[in-house]
Structure formats: C-alpha cells, structure tokens
Amino acid sequence: MSDKLVVEVPSNILETIYAGAKELYPRESFLLLRGKKSKGRIKINDLLLAPFAAHGHGEVHFNPYMFTGDFSLVGTVHSHPSGNITPSHVDMNYFFGRVLMIVGPPFEGKDCIAAYDSNAETVSIEITAPVQCGDEEFY
Ligand SMILES: [Zn+2]
Fold it and tell me: Structural domain of residue 29, as residue ranges?
C-alpha cells in the first residue's frame, strides 16, 4: 500500500459536522459523506443524514445496503462524545465507503477530527475552502 490517502474537507462542511455533533452531545451524531475520489484524494462535497442511524449511548448502526446505489457516498462521520477519536472495533466492522471520520469534543479546529481508512490507518485531513452543497442532484 504505497499511495497515501488524503481527504479534503471544506471548512463549512467541517463546521456543519461539528455543529451537529455539538447539538447531539452527549449522544453520538452520525452522517454520511458524499464526495469524489481521484488519485488518492477524497474531496468531500456534501453531507447526508443516515435515515437509520440510531442516536444513543454506544455505537451507531445503519444498514449500508440501503445506499449501494449512491456512488457519491465516500464514507461516514460520527462523533465520539468520550473525546477519544480512535475507531472502535464496531466502527471498523461497520466501515463503509473509503473513509471513516470521527469527531470529538470540543468540536473545534483541526484536532477534533480524525480520518481512517478500512485498515484503521490514519488518513490525512486537509481543510479546504468552503463549498456550496445540498442543492445539487447527483444525477
Ligand atoms: Zn465510533
């Protein structure tokens, strides 16, 4: 595995992730990430609420087979209210897409978010300029 993955997160999307996580704290938040992948870079360009995400203590589950038709889904992001932003075994078992991102309190800045690939290896995060999102159909 030579090519290192980088995930680009527009600043406004990061703010939205943090805002949602803060709102649900101390429960977990869970969102799906939409974006594009090209040459080892994943560019996040939208967020999607997971319809079957159950918010509560412990881990969040959803059925990834619900989304197999949507190829713009590149991964998931959820919060760890404990502040430990390393993935759990359950997180890795439910790994979906290309990248798993975890956020933790105080939900600010660059140190409260981490990204992992399917081998639980850390993926670099680059915060990029804000994008417009939410009003564009995939097809
Ligand atoms: Zn988790």
Answer: 6-54+67-128
Give the domain CATH number at 90.
3.40.140.10
Locate 63 and state its tokens.
Answer: 């059925």
53 or 21: which carries more pLDDT confidence?
A: 21
Closest by CA to 9, choosing from 94, 95, 124, 135, is 124
Whether residue 136 lies inside any domain: the answer is no
- What's the gap in Å between 58 CA and the centre of ligand 1? 8
The CA 139 to ligand 1 mean position distance, Å, reads 31
Give the integer Cα–Cα distance in Å for 123 and 86. 12
Domain count, the chain: 1
Whether residue 138 is contained in a domain is answered as no
Q: Would you place residue 132 in the very low, low, confident or very high pLDDT band (cuts 50, 70, 90)?
A: confident
CA of 115 to the centre of ligand 1 (A): 12
Mention every residue, 6+ apart, whose C-beta is less than 8 A from residue 88: 59
Ligand 1 centre distance from Cα of residue 135 (Å)? 29
